[in-house]
Amino acid sequence: MLGVTLWRLLIVAFALIGVIAAVQQDGNPWPGLSLQASLFTAIVYGVLMLWPLFTLGRSHEPPSAWIRGGTAVLLLLVMSVYMTLLDGDLSETWSLFEHLLTPLVVFADACFVGASAARMKWWFPFTWVSLPLAYLIYYIADDLKMYGGMLRPDSDKFFVYVPVLLVVTIALGFVVFGLGKLRGLVATSAVTPGGGQAPFGGPAPQRWGTAPQPGMPPAGPQPPAGRPAPQGGQPYPPQPVPPSGGFPGPQHLPGGPR
């Protein structure tokens, strides 16, 4: 649990470094999606970092990975758009953290850290679209003019780029979902079988009343003559050891020895 907390402290530090460096570089970077996504990440992972305190140590993360997956998809979208449609320059500290380092560590956390990643639902990728859509609503409502106007409804680019970005967001969501599920399957297959389970590569232990061994009657092993069958699936008690030599002792017929 301490390792997970320290890891998420690192994510918070990465996100805040990007935010602080962006503010120092540009006096008003707040309308940009890159800065807002990093600030959102710092808040989300600050809460996740303190989650063990909220639950008094009973768990180190919420039972659902929705918020972690959604944050990862949002940052991956920021990174993808910046690297392909915009200038993609990572020479500045703020850009390096906002567009590369923070997205990568959050992506790794969403897919490979914690048990909740394996419990993602198949429909999560469709709902994660709500995060970039919230920014789009803000962009239109505040009449922003960044990103070459491709997010402005009065531009011809709007009806080209927005549907493409929504499809890319869903695709990135399924990448996060698939890797989280794969990690869960690998972790499950690596668990050592417990008592009563078959060891890897070996046959399962047999119990009375289960599938018969080859050559046995369908009803399973039968008790020897004159002995009651054991109850509750218990094994038969050991039979008495014959006298020395492996042969039965002398038999006495009724009336005494002759």
Question: How would you summarize what this structure contains?
Answer:
Residues 214-227, 235-245 have a biased composition (Pro residues). The protein has helices at residues 2-25, 33-49, 51-54, 66-84, 93-112, 124-127, 130-141, 158-189. It has 258 residues and is an all-alpha fold.
What percent strand?
A: under 5%
Main sheet record: none
What helical percentage do the residues reach?
40-55%
Number of helices: 8
Average pLDDT works out at 83
Rg calculated over all Cα atoms: 33 Å
What is the number of E strands?
0
* Head-to-tail CA distance between termini: 81 Å
Q: Uncertain runs with pLDDT below 50, 5 residues or more?
A: 198-202
List keywords for this structure.
51% helix, 258 residues, elongated, single chain, mainly alpha
How is the topology of this model organized?
Elements: H1 2-25, H2 33-49, H3 51-54, H4 66-84, H5 93-112, H6 124-127, H7 130-141, H8 158-189
Helix pairs in contact: 1-2, 1-5, 2-4, 2-5, 4-5, 4-8, 5-8
Structure notes:
This is Integral membrane protein. Keywords: Membrane, Transmembrane, Transmembrane helix. The chain is an all-alpha fold. It has one domain. Helix content is 51%, strand content 0%. The longest helix is centred in the last third of the chain and has 32 residues.
